[in-house]
Amino acid sequence: MGKSEEHKMMEGINKLSSDIHEGFKKVNDNFKHFVIRLEKIEENMKTIRAEDKLLKERVQALEDGKKVMEKNMKKIEDRQNARDKVISGVEEEVKERVDKLEDRQNTRDKLISSVEEEVKELKNEIRILKEARNSKIIKTEESAGINRLVPTLYTTNQDNQVLKEIEDRNARRRNVIITGIEEKTEEDVMETVTGLLEKIGSKTTMGFITYRIGKVNVDKTRPIIVKFENEIDKEHVLCKKWKLKNMTGCEKIFVREDMTWKQRETLTDLIREARERTAERENERWTVRGRRTQPYLMKIQQQQQRKHQQ
User: CA–CA distance from 46 to each of 35, 40, 51 (Å)?
Assistant: First the structure.
């Protein structure tokens, strides 16, 4: 091989070596750029992770805030519901008190009306008594030459009967009679009557005494008398007694006023007279109205009569 060929070969090798060196240099440069880019990517990833963490913290804070808000809203709703219940309770209590006041006012009005009627009736009886006393034939008796007017024994007895009737009515005016309550061997009448009054919603303002009247009879239930300390309580019970007919087990229990023998006789006579008038008059129907202690006859109109028959 000549020198020229060796020289060419060496030049080729040098060129190849230079090319390889340049290639390695480029690869090294590219690698450095890659490392730099990789470092930037890692820095970006760190930034992204930090932002993601911050975002998650904010989301968690928002969720915690939402929970707190929901709890506060629940508390507000509970308070509002509590207020509504209080308001509703107050409204019901006010309504109940107003109803009680109205019941008491109605009871007082009825009591006043009853007392006025009784006073009127007593005045009428006193007037009749005076007229009877003045109209009776009196005996003339001479004693030592002096004429003396002596009332007859009949007039005196009539006075005593009227006064006794007045006293009897006054003694009974705060009483009621209860019938239809089963009589038991060992019973607490006070507890029984108190329970009955509570059932019909009658609350007494003062006390009362109660017991069964009449002799013990195994074949008959004795009635119960209730003696109130004031007439308002009695009137309140009479206003509420209608509830018994709608209560299970109380349909046969009746509450009535305590009447004298004369009052019962008058009521019986009026009932008999109403039946007689109805039987005698073809197109009329008569009935007894008013309180049992102050009854009166009343003719029912044709429209009311047809409604009653239906």
Answer: 16, 10, 8
Domains present along the chain, CATH in parentheses: 175-258 (3.30.70), 263-309 (no CATH)
pTM: 0.50
- Pick 104 or 74 by higher pLDDT: 74
Alpha carbon of residue 106 to chain centroid: 18
CA dihedral sign of residues 249, 224, 172, 269: positive
Long-range contacts of 121-124 (CB under 8 A, 24+ apart): 121/294, 122/166
Nearest to 101 by CA among 262, 236, 275, 269: 236
pLDDT (tens digit per residue) in 102-161: 776 776 676 677 666 766 777 776 666 666 555 544 433 434 343 433 344 445 566 677
CA distances, 68 to each of 61, 64, 65, 261, 300 (Å): 10, 6, 5, 80, 74
Average pLDDT over residues 22-43: 83
Q: Which of these, 304, 300, 270, 297, lies nearest to 285 by C-alpha position?
A: 300
What's the CA gap between 255 and 241, in Å, rounded? 6
